[in-house]
Specification:
Layout (H helix, E strand, L loop, with lengths): L1 H17 L5 E4 L4 H8 L5 E5 L3 E3 L4 E2 L4 E11 L12 E8 L2 E10 L3 E8 L2 E6 L2 E3 L6 E4 L2 E7 L2 E3 L6 E4 L2 E2 L3 E2 L2 E3 L11 E4 L14
């Protein structure tokens, strides 16, 4: 009992301290490509979104030292936002080899293979998002990660599982998530999967139907 309480408290306080940015900036665009260009000049800030809808015309590549505050913004296939059709992106958001990242209050609803995809990252909080109707999995954490917390997300109606963690992942909290009506009949497409299988390709989770 003492061990889990200590680990839980450590993870909460570590991530809270890592995400204590005070400066706020506003993103007024409505495409992932505009957002990626905007984020190149962002460090240790909270990025507030003003648009109701963001077109996933490319993968959102989240850098270190930012909090993305979605304010309910929907991430959608471009045809639903700009009227321009394009191929589905592999991930809605990719956090790769980053640290000190918050993803708050988005609705990822179409246009991507996986929702939020984390590889080899540290001190991250994915909080209060809705991820539904993506082709495969909603939340994936792959490889060596520490202090990646998944809290109060709604994960439903996705095509091939929901929350998937595979690798050496320590001091991670999974709490308060609603996980329901996701598809998949194998053990590795269950609602929440914790696995220590060898990660041969960190960019692709187990997606056998």
């Amino acid at each position: 009992e003492y061990d889990w309480k200590t680990l839980y408290s450590d993870s909460l306080t570590t991530v809270k301290a890592a995400l204590s940015f005070e400066k706020k900036v506003t993103f007024e665009g409505n495409t992932a490509s505009e957002l990626n260009a905007f984020l190149k000049n962002c460090s240790q800030v909270v990025v507030e979104f003003t648009a109701d809808k963001i077109a996933l015309d490319e993968i959102i590549r989240v850098p270190s030292d930012v909090i993305l505050q979605g304010n309910g913004a929907q991430l959608l296939a471009p045809a639903q936002v700009t009227g321009v059709a394009s191929e589905e992106v592999k991930y809605a958001m990719l956090l790769e080899d980053v640290q000190n990242v918050g993803i708050y209050d988005f609705r990822i609803l179409s246009g991507c293979g996986q929702g939020v995809y984390v590889i080899g990252s540290h001190n991250c909080l994915i909080w209060n998002n809705e991820i539904a109707n993506v082709t495969y999995k909603a939340l994936c954490v792959m490889g060596d990660n520490t202090y990646v917390n998944l809290v109060n997300n709604s994960v439903h109606d996705n095509g091939n599982g929901a929350i998937f963690l595979n690798g050496e992942i320590t001091n991670c909290i999974i709490q308060g998530n609603e996980v329901y009506q996701n598809r998949g009949t194998r053990n590795l497409t269950a609602g929440i999967v914790l696995s220590s299988m060898e990660v041969e390709d960190p960019y692709t989770p187990y997606n056998v139907f």
